[in-house]
Write a structure and sequence with these properties.
The complex is a heterodimer of chains A (about 260) and B (about 170).
Chain A (H helix, E strand, L loop, with lengths): L4 E3 L4 H10 L3 E4 L5 H6 L7 E4 L9 E4 L2 E5 L4 H6 L1 H6 L1 H8 L4 H6 L2 H7 L6 H7 L3 E4 L3 E3 H4 E3 L2 E2 L7 E7 L3 E8 L6 E10 L2 E7 L6 E2 L1 H9 L24 H19 L1
Parallel strand pairs in A: 1-3, 2-3
Antiparallel strand pairs in A: 4-5, 5-10, 6-7, 6-10, 8-9, 11-12, 12-13, 13-14
Chain B lengths: L1 E7 L2 E7 L5 H8 L18 E4 L2 E4 L12 E3 L13 H8 L9 H14 L4 E2 L1 H7 L11 H13 L3 E2 L7
The chains are: A alpha+beta (about 260), B alpha/beta (about 170).
Amino acid sequence: MYAFDYKRPKTVAEAEAAFAADSDAAFLAGGQTLIPTLKQRLRQPSALIDLAALDALKGITVADGIVTIGAGVCHADVAVSADVRKAIPALADLAAQVGDPQVRNRGTLGGSIANNDPAADYPAAVVGLDATVHTSRREIAAAAFFTGMFETALEPGELVVKVSFPIPRRAAYQKFRNPASRYAVVGVMVAETAGGMRVAVTGAGPCVFRVPTMEAALAMNFSAGALQNIQVPPDDLNADLHATSEYRAHLIGVMATRAVASIA
Amino acid sequence: MIDVTITVNGETKTASVEPRLLLVDYLRETLKLTGTHVGCDTSQCGACTVQLDGRSVKACTTLAVQADGARVATIESVAAKDGTLHPMQAAFREHHGLQCGFCTPGMIMSALALVERNRGAVLTEAVIRHELEGNLCRCTGYQSIVKSIAAGAKAMGLAVGDLAGNI
């Protein structure tokens, strides 16, 4: 690691001020991506602004049909939260499948979506459940938050404070994981929400995306069979040593079908 | 340099550290607690697993400054002062849960956290295997480790079921 300064502010305002005061600062959440990146000398921030002491980023609440999770809540706490399990079991299931126990004990919701790794799980939940991202400056709809591979609508110094997930009528997440990294080769969140049917895919493309053809088919007939003849074109999907784009396209259908079958 | 106060294995330690110092290097190099191992140093193998405020974490993927004000427990805190093995350690010895032993400190720290996470539940082979995903072993093929953890958990008062067949 290159050397860096370290600050641990107590409030969101202090965190933003600390970020602005440094030439090339980076926010540190759980560090499960950032610290390995620093160790490989792929980044050289002038300072790390540790968000661990910000109370505003903590806590899980359920009220008025909305589950709100603080950006600093770790995956392990979402996975075991009785409130989340009762309101949106698919979200607790998703959190329980991130990485491994040690990663889930450190990694956070805010860190995951701010990083927007194309194979991360949480983007599928945020888009699939039509969540709203509350930042230190504004509210951002899920559809506008994820803008590209490792890119989001966040401005420099803007930090995720919490994410609110409207409770869907039903939802399920299915993931074909890389057995070594446990990142999603393909992960699919299927949700029937107040605003309609949503199918969100992570792992397959450069950034999380929805599948309108599947959503239309499920709106007509919510059954695994409804997806049988739908092909997702592989043209813009990822290809790497783990899977070809054609294989990923195929997996989208398989994972979506399994998700629907589990809640139909 | 940043001043940190960390309670390590029940003893309060203060130090002035560089922000980039990893927790595992603080434990091994500064405190000479070399039971915590560095295996892959890339967040995958779990040989560096310690407990931070009671939760298993990879000490190679945690900065020492992040542990300021926290409690850290390492493998050195597990056996009794007179050397009597903890039931989980005894189970690893009894059931051949180690061969070369390099991954064992991390395995034990993960196993102890796993037991605490599953208090009140019936521990199954599937749960043990799922919750052991952050720890790699290159010798045993895991069968004996799973068996050891099941036995250790039982000795620690957990109900253990569904181990038939595979182990």
